[in-house]
Design goal:
single chain; eight-stranded mixed beta sheet; alpha+beta; globular
Length: about 425
């Protein structure tokens, strides 16, 4: 592995974003039916869904642009659900359904790369068989391949690869997806307010009062507040006096120069460090680690995570060990820990929608995956609309996002919303 340099290690900080020449949006209203806190994929998804049903909604993001947290710092896999088929069949079924939806409504935000699960010599053969069977059980195509067939698809693969199977994974560009979703929300009447950190939440009255602080402090009255702050959801809930136990974990992504991989490569073994290789144009993103963190705003970025990730991924493609490291960045998984402490990879990756008895009017959405962000938003909107007396059905799976398959237009939206992030910085211009 080449020596690490300050330019590549930690070139994106824990919560920073790429600087974009976008517009800073401020809330103009003093009242709204629903306020959504958090400008990642789930937050903008909720705003879009509610706005399309005719609900008045204002989205508040503390940073200067959208996509600053988990969404923009992912490895960018459009999951088929195969990674979860054996451990969480319900979640896997959600993934394959949403995989198909996103290809229809956001073609310019995804790449149809396909995916491979690789069984290396020494890996558990029973795990391989269980994984294939579980995929087929939930409706995920899993086409078996021998070593020669894998060699044709991945010329640089290790000689230790003995077999594998193909699944409909893909790559998603979160900067474009978040910006296009925000644009759709705005087009349907939602207010998108960046640079709007929520500092206090008073849920003791008939409505919820949000105190927004920056260089222009103000308040916003809402009937309902949606906490879609990802790893920061516990901190947001605490502002309203509610207890929400989050247990975020950090994971490193390492982008290296290597154009020789076309499909997403997954190591077919129990979840472990360095088991996925994601194609991004002439680069690949290697992931990842899983280390619990106490504070999503302040956590270590360790060199050993970079080194281990490159080393483990090189077991699938040996040339990766010597590829030039272009950038590294750490992401945070918004894992929800409702009960006693769990193993670091054992906490649920599914999503949960919660009411808070201590803070009437506050609803939190926690957990989940980027692939299922639209479904998460639908669940939140369904929950809220029942209480608001809104009978309009969800339409987000049927209407294409602005820009659709126009990459140039999508990148203009990324700039306008300040949504550029490290996950796809070599793709989005």
């Amino acid at each position: 592995m080449p020596p690490l340099t300050p330019e590549c290690v930690g070139s994106f900080g824990p919560t920073g974003t790429l600087k974009a020449s976008g517009t800073l949006f401020k809330p103009m209203s003093e009242e709204t039916a629903v306020a959504v806190i958090g400008g990642g994929a789930t937050g903008v998804g909720v705003a879009r869904d509610l706005a399309m049903r005719g609900v008045e909604v204002t989205l508040l993001e503390r940073g200067e642009g959208l996509n600053a947290g988990t969404s923009g710092r992912s490895h960018g896999v459009l999951h088929s659900g195969a990674r979860y088929a054996d451990s969480d069949p319900e979640g896997a079924a959600e993934c394959i359904r949403e995989n198909r939806v996103l290809r229809e409504i956001a073609p310019g935000c995804v790449a149809d790369t396909g995916g491979l699960f690789l069984h290396l010599d020494g890996d558990d053969p029973d795990y391989f068989e269980r994984k294939v069977a579980a995929c087929r059980e939930v409706g995920i195509s899993a086409d078996s391949l021998d070593a020669a067939e894998i060699r044709e698809r991945v010329p640089g693969r290790s000689e230790n690869v003995v077999r594998g199977f193909a699944v409909p994974d893909g790559v998603v560009y979160p900067s474009r997806l978040v910006a296009a979703t925000a644009a759709s929300a705005r087009d349907h009447g939602a207010e998108i307010a960046t640079g709007s950190p929520v500092e206090e939440i008073d849920a003791t009255g008939n409505s919820v009062t949000l105190s927004i602080g920056d260089d222009d402090p103000r308040t916003l009255e809402a009937t309902t507040v949606v906490n879609a702050a990802g790893p920061w959801a516990g901190k947001v809930a605490a502002l309203a006096g509610a207890d929400l136990r989050m247990r975020p974990t950090r994971g490193v992504m390492v982008a290296v120069d290597y154009p020789g991989v076309e499909p997403v490569l997954n190591r077919c073994r129990a979840p472990a460090d360095g088991d996925i290789v994601v194609p991004h144009g002439k680069q690949v993103v290697l992931g990842t680690t899983s280390v619990a963190v106490d504070d999503p705003d302040d956590f270590e970025q360790a060199d050993w995570e970079v080194e281990r990730t490159v080393s483990e991924c090189s077991a699938m493609v040996p040339q990766l060990a010597d590829a030039a490291v272009e950038r590294t960045y750490w992401g945070l998984r918004p894992l929800y820990e409702p009960e006693e402490a769990a193993e670091r990879r054992g906490i649920s990756r599914g999503f949960t929608v919660l009411d808070h008895d201590e803070a009437p009017g506050l609803v939190s959405v926690v957990g989940g995956k980027l692939t299922t962000y639209r479904l998460m938003a639908e669940a939140v909107a369904d929950h809220l609309c029942d209480d608001l007396g809104v009978e309009s059905p969800c339409k987000t799976a049927d209407e294409v996002l602005p820009g659709a398959d126009d990459a140039e237009r999508l990148d203009e939206l990324v700039a306008a919303f300040g949504a550029a992030g490290p996950a796809d910085s070599n793709i989005v211009h």
